[in-house]
Amino acid sequence: MANGYSEHFVQFVAKAREAWPTKTICAGNVVTGEMCEELILSGADIVKVGIGPGSVCTTRVKTGVGYPQLSAVIECADAAHGLGGMIVSDGGCTTPGDVAKAFGGGADFVMLGGMLAGHEESGGRIVEENGEKFMLFYGMSSESAMKRHVGGVAEYRAAEGKTVKLPLRGPVENTARDILGGLRSACTYVGASRLKELTKRTTFIPCAGTRKPHLQQPVIYQRWRGATRQRYPIPLIASPKWKIGRYIATTSVPIIPPVMISNAGSSKAARLSASAIVLSR
């Protein structure tokens, strides 16, 4: 369900565990460590994390409720893994790099919707406009979804999703190959021999002040074991905004923002290479 913050839902999870003690139970969605722990202690094996990050979700706009997805993943992963549970990062991925960041933040699984929409295997309704074919893609709390599954939008609530038209993208195999290739490359950049090690090899730091939208974000930096004082961490991928209040500043090192790498030989670039706080779990 979209809102896992319900006492009735917690009780339902407990009853489900009592009824099916050997089955795997996945419960959600939540975005905080406390509620993640509550669901696991009630019997859930896996917790779904994410409120409002989906590409066709408008919950944050309609309700003002939400949580930065990477922050939620990091916080909930810490809580779940401490109790032997697992989490699914649900939503917020638009590139293979986003998938890598979700795993780097501690997610055990990553759910994809928009990245896989519009393909031949997606099963969406195809419409034609001006001789070009499009596939309809809608959020599960959108007006389209509620009309199809529950007969319409109830008078007392608003739709929290939208419907978009996507150009046909062909077979999903090519997109899947691109995502897997990005994940493999991410692991090689940070020295992870397998996907499970990615979170152990990842450090997130804030990086701002650039003019390119995809770089106006924190960045994952490589941190070799035993080299925490390395002066020039290697930039990996830009990361969306996330809450860093509970993280500890461990050291300060001179870092060249990714946008300045091509100009690193100039004196201007050197002056722009400001010290940045490295944040580590």
TrEMBL record:
Quote the Gene3D superfamilies the UniProt record gives.
Aldolase class I
What is this enzyme's catalytic activity, as reactions?
IMP + NH4(+) + NADP(+) = GMP + NADPH + 2 H(+)
A Gene Ontology term for the protein's cellular component: cytosol
The answer to keyword Transmembrane applying to this record is: no
Which residue intervals define the domain IMP dehydrogenase/GMP reductase in the entry? Answer: 2-206
Q: Which UniProt keywords apply?
A: NADP, Oxidoreductase
Give the protein's biological function.
Catalyzes the irreversible NADPH-dependent deamination of GMP to IMP. It functions in the conversion of nucleobase, nucleoside and nucleotide derivatives of G to A nucleotides, and in maintaining the intracellular balance of A and G nucleotides.
Catalytic activity, EC: 1.7.1.7
Q: What class of enzyme is it?
A: oxidoreductase
A family per Pfam: IMPDH
Q: Which PROSITE patterns match?
A: IMP_DH_GMP_RED
Q: Which GO terms describe its molecular function?
A: GMP reductase activity
The species this protein belongs to is Escherichia coli
The protein in question is named GMP reductase
Q: Which segments does the entry list as coiled coil?
A: none
Which InterPro entries did the record assign? Aldolase_TIM, GMP_reductase, IMP_DH/GMP_Rdtase_CS, IMP_DH_GMPRt
Q: Which SMART domains match?
A: IMPDH (SM01240)
